[in-house]
Amino acid sequence: MTPESVASVRSRSQALQKRAERFFPGGVNSPVRAFRAVGGEPPFIERAEGAWLIDADGNRYIDYFGSWGPMILGHAFPPVVEAIERAARYSASFGASTAAEADLAERIAVCYPAVEKMRFVSSGTEATMSAIRLARAATGRKIVIKFEGCYHGHADGLLVKAGSGVATFGIPGSAGVPEEIAHLTLALPYNDLSAVEAAFDAHRDEIAAVILEPVVGNAGCIPPAPGYLAGLRALTANRGALLIVDEVMTGFRVALGGACELYGLVPDLVTLGKIVGGGLPVGVFGGKRQLMDLVSPAGPMYQAGTLSGNPLAMAAGLATVGHLQEHAAEVYARLEAAAKAVTEGVAQEAARAGVAVTLNRVGSMWTWFFTPGPVTNYEQAVKSDTAAFGRFHRAMLHRGVWLPPSQFEAAFISAAHGDAEVQATVAAARAAFRTA
Ligand SMILES: *Cc1c(COP(=O)(O)O)cnc(C)c1O
Fold first, then answer.
1. 93 and 142 both lie in a single domain
2. Catalytic residue at 103?
3. Domain end: 297, 326, 355, which one?
4. What is the pLDDT of residues 175-209, one digit of tens each?
5. For ligand 1, which residues put their CB under 6 angstroms from it?
6. Pick from 301, 326, 351: which residue ends a domain?
7. Whose CA is closest to 66, among 390, 360, 410, 394?
8. Is residue 229 part of a domain?
9. CATH classification at residue 249
10. Among 248, 367, 406, which is best to mutate for testing ligand 1, by the most ligand atoms less than 8 A from CB?
């Protein structure tokens, strides 16, 4: 099936959305699913296979958000489905230890040498929240530096809006976050080492950790400038603070060993999520052995989870990570080639139509920013023409291509996307730019 044959009938989705609005704020269980940033009505998904999503009205879409990252091998990948089915027959949860936890941990430790010991949690939010608690426990310091446009889940202290100027303490980026908590977070511009240095000077011996997305995905895709990550590594080490690399999105995405492998980075703590759970809820925080041994019951920092290391989640994670590990060269080469073809193909169509688009891409994650660019930080990203992006998004969806429904979310491709999908996407973009 090609995108041209996609019907735009969405009556069942519309009815399902109405019903959902009775029960859920905005009709959704995570805000971006409501399509508020792009307009239009969100289709309800019935099932998915490989690169394709099928909605409640039977419309088919090429998927470029992959459940926000996890579905790197494509949907309903048979080894993952079988692993989950097999595990489910042995019971969905025990609340006691299983061999699968160390099986997955062993694979993670091989791919992420910085992760000597780890703990499984059930979301990326839990992973970063726990990593920060650990950094504070280890250093006895309170302040955390994050970067404008980086998202690390929805824990209070990480929902902090950009403050202007290095010495400016964060203000809450959400209702319900007390100022007292937001004040412990400093939000600095990304890709600006001097801002971090100035913050360390202004808050001597007070900064527990620097947390960042090593390639930003949550402001759209923004790669680190050459030397930036190494600079942060050196600064944190010199100033007695921990470096937390949040690889919830980039882990197993930009390389098997994530951004740590790609950029040769050795952080103190790493957080993982998304791909590591193969579509089931898994998060990980881990790092140096001495640090991790501060976590309960080995040490004084409390952290726990009823469903942590859940057997179905471990099974899906093992099947996914196992496949990536065993076929790494082939899978990552294929992802790179497909991502390059689709991103450059669409960017060429934009240029041909006279639409200013800046393409940022690292491996199989990218963003077409609707701005002449460059886009190296959040301030530049928000110069994008979000109305034009919204029109493009709706035009693509209409033609059977489902892009992330916000200018400020990275797009992903999976190993199930082939030449046919790539060519259909470029053709859809050609038509979309003509009308959008
Ligand atoms: C998605 C994401 C999170 C949050 O993970 P959840 O599982 O949604 O809680 C944290 N950090 C980064 C970099 C992410 O992309």
1. yes
2. no
3. 326
4. 898 989 999 999 999 999 999 999 999 999 999 99
5. 123-125, 128, 151-153, 213, 217-218, 246, 248-249, 273, 283
6. 326
7. 410
8. yes
9. 3.40.640.10
10. 248
